[in-house]
Amino acid sequence: MTTALPPRAGRRCHNALNPLHSTLYFSPDLDREFAALGFTDPSAMRLAARSAALGAVGAGTVAAAFYNYNHELLARHLPGVWDTASPAEVLDARLRTVDATLRRLLGDEAVASPEMAEAAELALRATEACSRHARPLYSAHADLPVPEEPHLAYWYAATLLREHRGDGHLSALLSAGLDPVEALASHTATGKGMAPRWVLGTRGWGRADWEAATERLRGRGLLDADGELTDSGTALRAELEEHTDRLDSAPYEHLGAAGVERLTELGRGFLFAAAGAGAFPADLVGKG
């Protein structure tokens, strides 16, 4: 029998693991690997990298699975990207990118360390309790083979846990009545989401879409005149995370309190090292 988890322990663990998955999308190694496949557009590269596990799908499927991307952006690239490279070729290039990226950010010693092997074992154990139903991105990735090398297995397990929580989070957003841009704008207003210029540059929305969404949030009493969260807005965002925690509790309850604490400790160490090596743009997060 495992010890009950402390409040938000699963969320803290997710927050330590999830960003390591995301290093992929900011890596120059991705541009190199995907250029070798014939990709020239950065948006196409990143959309293909995240959606390839779903197969050679079109914009509608990806809009549903990603939630906060503009369908018009997706339709410019999907399903056309699969004429450049097949999903299998993209997945292989993605894994080569992860290998190069983690070796560059963490160093070969950390990649080959006992701590990395331990983190991979713990994260994979947590994924044993993930559920497939109504979780398209998680379920698609769960069909992929587990990489043999520990640092790749750790990244893969972090990806499964990321998409498992993310799929559940979409249910919470729908329950809260937040459309894609409202979800993005209210998250940015917490100070923990992507800065507006990064949202607009990667999700395909325009400034007019952003302003319209913030006006709707003001109309619901969730943002004030300065674009800051009101008390009601803060409460809504807190409930969103609590709702997501409930939907995402199984992997961490399965791992147990001691395992979650250790995985969080190891994940934070790898994340801090990657961030210190320049894994993310300095202006990625914030309200400005």
From TrEMBL:
InterPro entries: HTH_67 (IPR054058). This is SalK. It comes from Streptomyces tanashiensis. It comes from the Bacteria.
